[in-house]
Amino acid sequence: MATEILVPTLGESITEATLGEWLKQPGDAVAVDEPIASLETDKVSVEVPSPVAGTMGEHAVKVGDTVLVGAMLATVDAGDGAAKQASAPQPAVTQDAGNKPAVTQDSGKSADGAGYGDQPGAAAADSPAADGPAALSPSVRRAVLEHGVDPATVKGSGRDGRITKEDVVAAAQKPASAPAAAPAAAAPSGSGDRKEERVRMTRLRQTIAKRLKEAQNTAAMLTTFNDVDMTAVIEARTKYKDLFEKKHGVRLGFMGFFVKAACMALKDIPSVNASIDGDDIVYHDYADISVAVSSPGGLVVPVIRDADQLTVAGIEKTIGDFGRRAKDGALKMDEMKGGTFTISNGGVFGSLMSTPIINPPQSAVLGLHRIEDRAVAVDGQVVVRPMMYLALSYDHRLIDGREAVTFLVALKNAIEDPTRILIDL
User: Fold this and answer.
1) Residue 145 covered by a domain
2) Active-site residue 59, yes or no?
């Protein structure tokens, strides 16, 4: 008896998704709760598990198709599918590998770094060539992208020969793999061939593009700059980082200081923490800070709830957890909803200065940049200090220039004298 696999509920206000990849092919054995497909929503990737054990039936949709919540994806024929595959593993592998010569060719293009959008095809092709018929999971696929490893050269240690993230990391750490790959990569460039590849944007990238353009079209955006002397924060971090990590189990970074300082400034200038809803202004007596985090699929913005009530240690733990799960594609949709103010740290990538774009319906975003030694005047003397540029982009419909500058000055004062954070001054 065949069981229909339907698109599950994806979250509040999300009614459709894009089929990112099939994790199971027709004829593959399927266990209860084993993922059979990966769906891409506007924010995260969601794996669809099978409610029954059996054998994978026919696919009802293709990779890249848009599907609605409740629509049928495929069928699973109930039965002891695992036993069937165990009794005849070789035909399954041969059939799966033989049916995808074209996809295998596409996966070679993906390895050139054309973009994340062509990874569904690469995952489907590389898995049979690796060590079994199972397709790569989203977290493994991201690890492959991050470390630049060819899945065909990785031996899987997971169930049914599935490649795990640890297998990819271990393969990337082998010194012999890099020299072997270098000549092959250099050969095409020397031949003078000019190639192009058209890759469909992922749903996440489409959503990012749409929301950023909407922000530019809707808000009256303006950016105000200031700089901050990081000497006091660097000294505090250097002095206490070992004790901090020993006590709290997390490294002491700069974001904890900036989030706390921002929360204090938001209380002083509530319009920066507000939003526009029609003809109304909505003021928030709490600070839910959105923190921009880089992921293999693009920029995601999880939210630190009630950041104004957390300690620096609590903030650092939350940010660290967001960063790890963003790389694995394990962030939940609820964790990226809401937010009253955003902090984006382009400095980790070496950015000197930028004009960040507002994350609607928020009214402001703070951009942090790299720290570099610069000559500044202090008490009439020219000294060298570690300086950082701060950029506050804001909606001028709600926030006046005076309020924006006052916010930045309050933030600057707290960072240059961290004692203010301790005594809430």
Assistant:
1) yes
2) no
Report strand pairing: 35-40 vs 16-22: antiparallel
Domain of 396?
205-423
- Give the per-residue pLDDT at 95: 41
**Residue with token string 């029954």:** 52
Identify whether residues 162 and 217 lie together within a single domain. Answer: no
Is position 284 annotated as part of the catalytic site? Answer: no
Options 167, 400, 417, 424, the catalytic residue: 400
Cross-strand bridge partners of residue 344: 367
The two structure tokens encoding residue 6: 């339907």
Q: Are 9 and 101 part of one and the same domain?
A: yes
**Of 110, 320, 95, nearest in space to 198 by CA:** 110
The string of pLDDT tens digits covering residues 358-416 is: 988 899 999 999 999 999 999 999 999 999 999 999 999 999 999 999 999 999 999 99
Interatomic CA distance for residues 286 and 304, integer angstroms: 11
Q: Above 70 in pLDDT, residue 239?
A: yes
CA distances to 155, 301, 306, 308, 359 from 285, in Å: 53, 21, 10, 10, 19
User: Do 346 and 413 fall within a single domain?
Assistant: yes
Q: The CATH number of the domain where 341 resides is what? A: 3.30.559.10
Q: Of the listed 160, 396, 417, 424, which one is catalytic? A: 396
Strand pairing category for 372-378 and 381-395: antiparallel
Residue with tokens 């000497």: 231
- Tell me how crowded residue 376 is: count the other CB atoms within 10 A of its CB: 13
Same domain, 218 and 171: no
What's the order of all strands across the beta sheet hosting 54-59?
2-6, 72-78, 54-59, 29-30
For residue range 49-77, what is the model confidence (pLDDT) as tens digits?
888 888 888 888 888 788 888 888 888 88
Which one of 167, 191, 215 terminates a domain? 191
Structural domains in the chain (count): 2
What's the pTM value of the predicted model, to 2 decimals? 0.59
